[in-house]
Amino acid sequence: MIVLAEAQEIEETKERVWAELENVIDPELGVDIVNLGLVYGVDLDDDNNVAVTMTLTSMGCPLAGMIQSEIKMALWDLQEANEIGEVEANIVWDPPWGKDKMSRYAKIALGVAD
């Protein structure tokens, strides 16, 4: 039962992290990075350190550092509440981002057809 409770707690923490990441807005597109499909995953280690695996809309995006900083700021309250430890935002290029990764909400907001 303890293992099940721990697994449920991990999933709830991940859900809170995902929810906070919806507050990180891509400054060029004006839509959050979750709905844009830029966040590929959120992982927690045994010390509740968070690793966000994400991509950007283009390899030469000059705003990479800014978005990584925004992620850390968005998760600051969870850190202050000791729900999570350190935060790391890892940018990957595989799989490459495409409009197919966007949520319906993002497509509507940006006027992108399916």
Automatic annotation (TrEMBL):
Transmembrane intervals: none
UniProt xrefs under InterPro entries: Fe-S_Maturation_MIP18, FSCA_dom_sf, MIP18-like
Chain ranges of the MIP18 family-like domain: 14-81
Domain of life: Bacteria
Name of the protein: Metal-sulfur cluster biosynthetic enzyme
Record organism: Natribacillus halophilus
